[in-house]
Design a protein that fits this description.
The complex is a heterodimer. By secondary structure, chain A is of the alpha+beta class. Chain A has 3 domains: about 210 residues, Rossmann fold; about 90 residues, Elongation Factor Tu (Ef-tu), domain 3 (Beta Barrel), CATH 2.40.30.10; about 100 residues, Translation factors (Elongation Factor Tu (Ef-tu), domain 3), CATH 2.40.30.10. Chain A contains 7 helices and 25 strands. In chain A, strand 2 and strand 3 form a beta hairpin. In chain A, helix 4 runs parallel beside helix 5. The longest helix of chain A has 17 residues. Chain B is of the alpha/beta class. Helix content of chain B is about 30%, strand content about 15%. In chain B, the strands form 2 sheets. In chain B, strands 4-3-2-5-7-6 form a 6-stranded mixed sheet, with helices on both faces. Chain B has a 4-stranded antiparallel sheet with strand order 9-8-10-11, with no helix packed on it. In chain B, about 50% of the residues are buried. The chains are: A alpha+beta, B alpha/beta. At the A-B interface, helix 2, helix 3, strand 2, strand 3 and helix 4 of A face strand 1, helix 1, helix 2 and helix 3 of B. Chain A: Its EC number is 2.7.7.4. Chain A: Keywords: ATP-binding, GTP-binding, Nucleotide-binding, Nucleotidyltransferase, Transferase.
Chain lengths: ~425, ~325
């Protein structure tokens, strides 16, 4: 039987109990093994705490344990009989917005946490906005610390309503809300006995059953060429294969294809799946494609079915999240990495910066600094076969890199091109 | 504006059973013509990482210890470039306290695939007086210097490691592409954000990138993949009789490296190894699991993590792994 995998990210403000929620999720779903639990008990006792502090299960760095906050994104793995989970556990503090962006970039679902006493705050709106921008298909709002508001349904209902209205406005389509107490375990894995009025799934039940939005197979096929395989051996004197991972769609032997940005056309002669020939391959399989014609193809090219090939462009409009400590400025020369292609580029314009509190666009900010989300226009030295991020998270995304030392400056999500 | 589909549990739960979507989920997995197993997805992701490094770096090397994770890495690399040979050489940091069965496996594998093996020897450093034996006799922390010297001397710019994020909570913070400075140091607070599957391998001369293709694999995934692909392993991974003694709650193999000490007695037990490392700090576990199926069943039921069960050096302090990684260890 195939057990599928849900990739999800968590986000919450400082001190709203996110590490405790994640610790509770891992602990109560039996994903924590005895020696890990002993280590947490030992450390908790050493700090004079009576009960094991579940946050210590996840805060892995010295600085995190010293400060009692999560600094960097961490990945955790657990499974239930229903499903496997890859959890990107991301920090909530405003200065680590880039880490939430990192976690959200590959997530099928985001868990946003709020403190029941404080309700929807600016950080909550920021997390919802990031989830929407990164096109995370599902959002779960967990209203934590329900024990501190007397488990009142009205408190939960008001927060759920406010968040749902806001997230809907952002364009998030699938929203689920769950009242929890991470400290006591109410509605995390086990249903709460303190909130009879809630009839919905626990957080884990929802994670186990929510449909994973892998729609990539309905999309047009895209194969960014990573590497040309040419053995030039006695057994394979003429073998020339284009190695790459199918980022979306399905590819068939005999299909007419176009290689971009050159625009040369050919036909798929064979598809080798890690050494074995196949007739069809689909995302996210890593394959080696052979073409009928000896056309020039190299790393950085994109192979796509001729009927649904993207257009190429040297003018890129995009939303970017600035992830570096040094700013991004107009006129700056950068490298743009899109799929397997890295090209020189220049930042032509920074039309606006997003104010996350009210989602308004502040015009002409002049530069973007760490954790800013803004609009940019970039011109590239060579054409790119770029999809809109709205159509493809893989072929619609790119990095801006400082050519001087390789620092990743910004993560970009492309607009639809003409 | 599109109307959101809201599942506000208390209000909207048409089935009334708390599982409004279970049916959808089952339909999707059963009905899709393009489904893949989780091992297929992990394999494809790892192959993608190997090919990215081949496409972007000048001098990559695979750290190869003869342990199961590095064996799986080599297997993936062989598949990634088929029918061409693997375009990387191998590097083994030999602590001088390796299991003979593992060294034999290492040399046989290298010969079979026509690969080039670099060896960085801890014993050589000790013999030359450049490293000193620790009072506790463990050589694991001593590996860092020969490893970083080997990387610098051979000018490797990408170094594949078999580290998995599920192993340990400091490793859970590790990137797939992890930039190291010219001293091989890891600074967890200054890591590059890693988004989508866009890996940034840019580095200055003297710096290198550690690459972890198995980041998203768990111990169980590794064993299931070994089973699916029928990959040969050194025999010490399977139950066998061995002379061991108890130290710090673990069964260590008796040998020239320095055990047993005073008050420690040797006994014969049926054991196997969950990890393969330096003999002075890698413990065996009591086990009758002599086949892949038995090993998988044993791991699935185990209440101890791989490292908790078998690695003494991770217990030195709460942040032992983080501290070693900062200095250049994997």
């Amino acid at each position: 039987m195939t057990i599928d995998t849900l990739r999800f990210a968590t986000a919450g403000s400082v001190d709203d109990g996110k590490s405790t929620l994640v610790g509770r999720l891992l602990h109560d779903s039996k994903a924590v093994l005895a020696d890990q639990m002993e280590a947490v008990e030992r450390a908790s006792l050493g700090r004079g705490q009576e009960a094991p502090d579940l946050a210590l299960l996840t805060d892995g760095l010295r600085a995190e344990r010293e400060q009692g906050i999560t600094i960097d994104v961490a990945y955790r793995y657990f499974a239930t009989p229903q499903r496997r989970f890859i959890l990107a556990d991301t920090p909530g503090h405003v200065q680590y917005t880039r880490n939430m962006v990192t976690g959200a970039s590959t997530a099928d679902l985001a868990v946003v946490l709020v403190d029941a006493r404080h309700g929807v705050v600016e950080q909550t709106r920021r997390h919802a906005a990031v989830a929407a921008l990164l096109r995370v298909p599902q959002v779960v709002l967990t209203v934590n610390k329900m024990d501190l508001v007397g488990y009142q349904e009205s408190v939960f209902a008001a927060i759920a309503e406010e968040f749902t209205a806001y997230a809907t406005q952002l364009g998030i389509r699938q929203i689920t809300t769950v009242p929890v107490s991470a400290l006591d375990g109410d509605n995390v894995v086990e249903p709460s006995r303190n909130m009879d009025w809630y009839g919905g799934p626990t957080v884990l039940e929802h994670l186990e059953t929510v449909p994973v939005g892998h729609r990539t197979n309905d999309e047009p096929a895209r194969i960014p060429v990573q590497y040309v395989i040419r053995p030039q051996t006695a057994e394979n004197p003429d073998y020339r294969g284009y190695a790459g991972q199918i980022t979306s769609g399905a590819l068939h032997v005999g299909e007419p294809v176009t290689v971009l940005p050159s625009g040369r056309t050919s036909t798929v002669e064979a598809i080798d799946m890690l050494g074995e020939p196949v007739g069809t391959a689909w995302a996210p399989q890593s394959v080696t494609v052979r073409l009928t014609d000896g056309i020039d193809v190299s790393r950085g090219d994109l192979i796509a079915p001729t009927a649904t090939a993207p257009t190429v462009t040297r003018e890129v409009g995009a939303t970017v999240c600035h992830v570096a400590d040094r700013p991004l400025t107009i006129g700056q020369r950068v490298l743009l990495k899109h799929t397997t292609r890295t090209v020189k580029a220049i930042v032509e314009e920074i039309p606006s910066r997003l104010a996350l509190d009210d989602l308004s666009q502040h015009p002409a900010p002049g530069e973007l600094v760490a954790n800013d989300i803004g609009r940019v226009r970039v011109r590239t030295a060579e054409p790119l076969a770029l999809d809109a991020y709205a159509d493809s998270r893989r072929t619609g995304s790119f990095l801006l890199i400082d050519p001087a030392d390789g620092t990743t400056l910004a993560a970009g999500m492309a607009d639809a091109t003409g | 504006m599109t109307t959101a589909a809201v599942t506000q549990g208390a209000v909207r739960d048409p089935g009334g059973d708390g599982h409004p979507r279970r049916t959808d989920h089952q339909d999707r997995t059963a009905g899709s013509p393009y489904s893949l197993t989780h091992l297929d997805v992990l394999e494809s992701e790892a192959v993608h990482i190997f090919r990215e490094v081949a496409g972007e770096f000048e001098r990559p090397v695979i750290l190869f210890s003869g342990g199961k994770d590095s064996i799986v890495m080599l297997h993936l690399a062989l598949k990634a470039f088929a029918p061409a040979p693997v375009p990387f050489s191998l590097l083994h940091v030999d602590t001088g306290h390796n299991f003979p069965e593992v060294l034999e496996y290492r040399d046989r594998t290298v010969a079979r695939h026509g690969l080039r093996l670099h060896i960085a020897s801890v014993q050589d450093y000790i013999n030359r007086g450049e490293l000193r034996e620790r009072p506790d006799g463990t050589r694991n922390p001593l590996q860092t210097v020969p490893l970083t010297d080997a990387i610098r001397n051979a000018r490797f710019d990408a170094v594949f490691g078999g580290g998995r994020r599920d192993e340990e909570k400091a490793r859970a913070k590790e990137r797939v592409f992890s930039l190291r400075d010219e001293f091989s140091q890891w600074d967890p607070r200054r890591q590059r954000p890693e988004l989508w599957q866009l890996y940034n391998g840019r580095h200055a001369p003297g710096e290198h990138v550690r690459v972890f293709p198995l980041s998203n694999w768990t111990e169980l995934d590794v064993w299931q993949y070994i089973d699916r692909e029928q990959i040969e392993l050194p025999a010490i991974y399977f139950s066998h009789e061995r002379e061991v003694f108890r130290r710090a709650g673990m069964w260590l193999t008796a040998g020239d490296w320095g055990g047993p000490g005073d008050g420690e007695t040797v006994e014969k037990r049926r054991v196997r190894y969950r990890t393969v490392g330096d003999m002075s700090c890698t413990g065996a576990v009591d086990s009758d699991a002599a086949t892949l199926n038995a090993v998988i069943a044993e791991i699935a039921a185990s209440r101890l993590t791989e490292r908790g069960a078998t690695r003494a050096d991770d217990k030195l302090s709460e942040a032992a792994m983080e501290d070693r990684k900062r200095e250049g260890y994997f």
